[in-house]
Structure formats: C-alpha cells, structure tokens
Amino acid sequence: MTMTTEPQTIWQQIEYSGLGTFLAEDPLAFPMIESLHVIALVTVFGAIMIMDLRMLGFASNASAISRISRETVRLTWVAFVLAAITGSLLFISKASSYMINPYFLVKMGLIVIAGLNMGWFHLITQRGQDQWDTAADIPTSVKVAGALSLTLWLMVIVFGRAIGFTLSFYY
Amino acid sequence: MIGDLLFQFAEWLRSTFLNDLAFWLETTALSQWIVTNFWAIPAIQVFHISALAALFGSALMINLKVLGIGGSGASYADTAKRFVPWMNWGFVVLLISGLGLIVGEPIRELPNPIFWVKMILIVITLPISLLFNARVARVEASGALTGSYKFGAALLIVLWCSIMFGGRWIAYAPV
After folding, report:
1. pLDDT tens, position by position, for chain B (175 residues)?
2. Closest in B41, B82, B168 to A38, CB measured
C-alpha cells in the first residue's frame, strides 16, 4: 500500500492541518458539529420557508410581506452563520474528499444561486414594495422569487444529504 | 461513562423482543424495497428534515416571541393560529417519514440506545409543546410574556434541540 504523507493539494493541506486532523479523529467533534449543523440548517430552512410561503401567498397573508421579512430575516442570518461555521468545520475534516464530491460542489453552487435570488429580491424587487406589500394580488416577480427560494433551499438539503451517502465513493 | 451506560442499554435492548422485531421488519417487502433502492433512505431523510424545518421554525417563531427576542409582532392568539398547524402537520410528516426510516433500517434503529433516548425525549416534549401552544393561543396580547411562559419557551427550545441531537447521534451509537 502506498500512502503519501506529504499533502499534494491545498485541500489536503487543510485536511491534514492540526484542526483538520483533530476534527477527523476526535470521537465527539464530528458528530457534535454535525448535530449543530442540522439544528442550524433546519432553522434556516424553517425561517426561509415562512417568508417564501408569504411571497407565494400561501401563508401569513394577514401580515404585510415586509413585516414577515423583518420578522424572519434576523433568525435566518443567525442560523445561516451557524450553519456556515459548522459546515466549514465539517469541510476542514475531509476537505479533499468534499472537493471531489460532485454533490458537495453542486450544493455550494445552489447556495450561491439562492443567495443571488435573495439579493435580487431585496435590492431590486423590493424597491416597488409599496405597490404590493399588503396586496391580495402578489406580482409574479415576487412569487417567482419565493418559488425559486423554496426550490433552491430544498435542493440544498437534497444535495447535502447526498454528500453523506456518497462520501465513500469520492475518496 | 455515558458511553458505558449506553452500551449496557444497547446490550439490554438486544435481549428484548425489539431485536426479533428488527430482524423480522428487515424481511418485509417494504424494507427490502428501501434497502435495494440506494436513494430511498436519503429521500425519506429529506422529507424528515423539511418537516423538522417547518416544526422547529414555527416553534421558534412562537417561543422567541414569548422570550421577547424575536418572532412575529402579531398577538399570541394570531401567532399560534399561524404556526401551530404547521407544527402539528410537521409532526405528522416527521412521524410517517420516521417510520419509513425505521422500516428501511430496523437494525440501525430499534436496538439502538440513542434511538430510544430520542423517543423518550419526544414523548416528554410532545405534551409540553401541545399544552404550551394551547396556553399561548389564549393570550390576546402581543408583548413579551413573563415567568412560567418564558421558562416553558426556553425549555421547549432546549428539548427540540436535544431531540435533533439525538436524531443525528443515532448514527454514532455505541452498539
């Protein structure tokens, strides 16, 4: 068996670092961080779902869209930061495996697209908010943003779960 | 210490009918179908996680509001009316998808000590959550509540989180 101990790529350097080795070898670290990651991502998706369902006119219709946005945005960000920190730690423990795992790469791409969709909504679409904030007739642009967000974040969960089941294929 | 305790619990579980039940479940057609379809378990887990998001997100909207650190600005009665049905339906989906996960991997779940720790936590949490939500639904005000309400809200957040910890730790049980 040939085993290279010298890191070949930056991802192996990260993985073989003190932190990476600790996270991979400690019996409690990985499951603990993973559990926090689950709590964080469930909170992100739960909070985003509340906003998306309002944008689609499916729930919370008694409140203005801007109000639901205000009520969910802080929780979303706090949970997203926790998910990103815990996710980065999980990544460090197996960096080179994750970097060749297509499900991981697609998941990262989906998060970027979901972020762009959210940014577009807040910076562009919400400029005309006064016209439709409480209207029964929600503009298509708002509904599309909500549907896209719901679909993208669901796909993030799908691909996230797929990573865990394919780790042994991409090693 | 906790590891030893869980290991003994696992030994005991293996000596009960749950062991036979797990092996029998594995022979059922549904279990066989799940086992032979690689994407079945992760797909059921996606339902489980999404339902959890609906339940926990809704629980946070109610409980953070009670604690006065976020949530909806509406009255408690309206907040409960908006979010409690999502918690209830979320729980139904969690239960069904959870049963699917048990049937698909009975030996991973039924003789697993952490699985039973999680189940006990659910049995404790569920009535507290139902009673708490019913109490909150009767409050017509919208400001932060005091005393026992705040304690209940904090306790429920801790309990739901411990259930999620349990769920993830099923995979790492000392069996």
Report:
1. 788 889 899 999 999 999 999 999 999 999 999 999 999 999 999 999 999 999 999 999 999 999 988 877 889 999 999 999 999 999 999 999 999 999 999 999 999 999 999 999 999 999 999 999 999 999 988 877 888 999 999 999 999 999 999 999 999 986 6
2. B168
Q: How far apart are CA A154 and CA B54, in angstroms?
A: 12
Conformational region of residue B20, where left means phi above 0, alpha means psi within -120 to 50, and beta covers everything else: alpha
**Minimal-distance CA residue of chain A relative to B72:** A71
Task: State how many domains chain B has.
Answer: 1
Contacts with B161 from chain A: Cβ below 8 Å = 39
Report the residue of chain B nearest A155, measured CA to CA: B46
Do A161 and B164 lie within an 8 Å CB cutoff? Answer: no
User: What's the complex ipTM?
Assistant: 0.94
Helices (H), B37-75: 40-67
**Among the listed residues A73, A74, A55, the one whose alpha carbon sits nearest the alpha carbon of residue A64:** A55
Interface of B with A (CB under 8 A): 38, 41-42, 45-46, 49-50, 52-58, 60-61, 64, 70-74, 78, 82, 86, 161, 164-165, 167-169, 171-172
How far, CA to CA in Å, does A123 sit from each of A115, A128, A145?
12, 10, 12
Cβ distance of A49 and B161 shorter than 8 Å: no
Domain residue spans in chain A?
A: 10-169
pTM: 0.94
Radius of gyration of chain A (CA): 19
Contact B167 A47 (CB under 8 A): no
